[in-house]
Specification:
Length: 270
């Protein structure tokens, strides 16, 4: 059985005032991903299940662990090959192996039943104090993008969204330099998953996830600000609106936050 693809074919009836048309279309794939965590002396255990778009699954798992304060580096990551897994579960279970025990017990904060939808991303943090207390990467201390650069960022990221071009059904996240150079772009049906993939891509490459700017295609909710803080980025640029809790966390953490960003304007909250 081959790995899942990020899009699937379907047939649709397109209905308009002038004519009806039966044709093939593309849907963004949405399937569960189970993340397991192991370290010396501890067998792999399930710590999270999320709905995601297949692709860059190892990055998603690694980024999620970093954002949760469970790891700063990963020894190995692989698809689980347990014989009891059904065909539908193949390539939908990833095991992260750490070099040592995580800073906090994942079993306490993330019991085996933990799960989330593609719209979920709070990841167990119930307060700003807890989000600020979580271990994070070394914070970005370099320059941040100027307002003129910030306004260009959504369009720059949009140029690198092939799955969205085919389906119109996924979010995107990207790391960008202060000068507006796009470092990495990832797509997913879940906006928090896209951010996990971006951070994971850097961690698995042995690089810091901290950069001048994290760009997201949707709103700036608390969960995305929390992930930006955990990754150590300098600023978060969102196409949509932030929430009150997101702004509060960003201000306390010293994170630059921009919302309602387009080529015409951006709104700076902190």
């Amino acid at each position: 059985m081959s790995r899942r693809k990020p899009t699937v074919r379907t047939t649709v009836d397109e209905l308009t005032d002038s004519a009806d048309r039966h044709h093939e279309d593309r849907l963004a794939t949405e399937e569960p991903l189970e993340i397991r965590l192991a370290w010396p002396g501890s067998p792999a255990r399930r710590v999270w299940v999320t709905m995601r778009t297949p692709g860059h699954d190892f990055e998603l798992a690694a980024g999620w662990a970093v954002h949760e304060g469970l790891a700063t580096a990963v020894d190995t990551v692989a698809y689980c090959t347990d014989q009891e897994l059904s065909e539908d579960e193949r390539f939908n279970v990833v095991t992260l192996t750490l070099g040592g025990a995580p800073p906090r017990d994942p079993g306490h904060r993330h019991p085996a039943s933990s799960s989330g939808s593609s719209a979920c991303g709070v990841c167990g943090k119930d307060s700003i104090a807890e989000a600020l207390a979580a271990p994070s990467a070394v914070r970005w201390s370099g320059a941040l993008p100027e307002p003129g650069v910030v306004r260009r960022l959504p369009d720059l990221v949009r140029e690198q969204q092939p799955v969205f071009d085919r389906t119109g059904g996924v979010h995107a996240a990207a790391l960008v330099t202060a000068a507006g150079e796009v470092v990495v772009v990832r797509e997913d049906v879940g906006r928090h998953n896209a951010v996990d993939k971006v951070t994971g891509s850097r961690v698995l490459a042995g690089l810091s996830p901290a950069e001048a700017c994290l760009v997201v295609s949707g709103r700036a909710g608390f969960e995305l600000v929390q992930k930006a803080v955990a990754a150590g980025v300098g600023s978060l640029v969102a196409v949509g609106a932030p929430t009150s809790l997101a702004v509060d966390l960003a201000r306390r953490a010293g994170l630059g936050l921009f919302g309602f960003t387009s080529s015409e304007r951006t709104v700076k909250y902190c």
